[in-house]
């Protein structure tokens, strides 16, 4: 009881000190960013039960500036798993999974009757239709698909000319609108990266879907991820992130996040690595998570962005042998479904599927169902949503969380560890009576143009609504400001 009273007294005193510091700061027209506040305050308050009340003080200080969704729109994205060049992963994965997990009925399907190939003609049909509809997302390229062959060397069963044509199609058609990820090396057998051959034993411990079954260091995991990334680099494919196959990394989640950062930066030099592993359900937040945030005040800030999906795969499954349920994403009227729920909530709405399910053993039933969902979303919510790659969503949320913002009279200053496109902020209660807003970066000035409707907001524009002045612009890395 005595200890509890002492803790309460300490909390009251700490609150008083913090409020006094807050008042002093307010007199100098300075604003703490979330990251600066956490850097200075998290240690002192981490053990105290009233942390939310203390954090609210910092929120009150920044309430004059609100960071909004890009262009005031909800990000949409589409995650395609188990895709690669030519190889139908449903056909080739099934017997390998059945060997490792002989007791599972889900692996006792007639895979021999399924097509061994998902042809480039379907990739072209899918990619062109998505480009016409503005769809963006993530598209996996498994580097050694189900141990069939190396995409940067030979793919037995297909000629070298066919393999190179398939890679070129991905580079030309998919890369502009899709993040390319390795889904580890094989998506089936674990590879000994010293020899390039699968581990001899076949059991859950030697399958990538459940690897590793023992603790692995960050360096060990990073070496495995880098092996996969180098194959994609040899194929001339850009990459800023990875996708985990099945339960890969479930026992080493903290180390995996760091390993993603190290591997992607080592192989590609990417500024902001991200990864897809998790699916959120129900009321759980669908916003990206910033992990292992370090050195944000330096010239080399480090962050790993965890971008989750928000739906199950209801199009055809990883094996392409299941019935599509498009209404679970969005019914035809656009009034119900998981994607509709997320759009109304204002959080990123990321759909999930598997490539064999899109092809659906050559019937394309999954793709047909997907087209109906996209047409519904684009028709019903075209003024409220924007299609983005996973990397673009991750970058926007990183800038949203880490940018230091300071507001003075008719000037808002930004110090951003990471830049992003379509950065959108509202200054509460402000107007633009002069009609002249200018974004200043170093010695360059760009004029922002006024628009009469919210739906017309694009980068380089501003709009006034009942709550204040809204500005949309490409936020540069480093220091910039807007004057009006």
End-to-end CA span: 56 Å
Level of helix content?
A: 25-40%
Sketch the major β-sheet: 9 strands, mixed
Q: What structural category do the secondary elements indicate?
A: alpha/beta
Number of helices: 12
Summarize the structure.
The chain is of the alpha/beta class and 484 residues long.
How would you portray this structure in words?
By secondary structure, this protein is an alpha/beta fold. The protein has twelve helices and 20 strands. It has helices spanning 2-27, 34-45, 51-61, 89-100, 120-133, 160-174, 218-234, 253-268, 338-345, 355-359, 365-380, 390-402, and strands at 65-67, 74-81, 137-140, 178-181, 191-192, 197-198, 241-243, 274-276, 289-294, 302-306, 349-354, 385-387, 404-408, 411-416, 420-428, 437-441, 444-450, 461-465, 468-475, 478-483. The strands form four sheets. A nine-stranded mixed beta sheet has the order 1-15-19-18-17-16-20-14-13. Strands 2, 3, 4, 11 and 12 form a five-stranded parallel beta sheet that branches. Helix 1 (2-27) runs parallel beside helix 3, helix 5 (120-133) runs parallel beside helix 6 (160-174) and helix 7 (218-234) packs parallel to helix 8 (253-268). The longest helix has 26 residues, at 2-27. The protein is globular, with a radius of gyration of 25 Å.
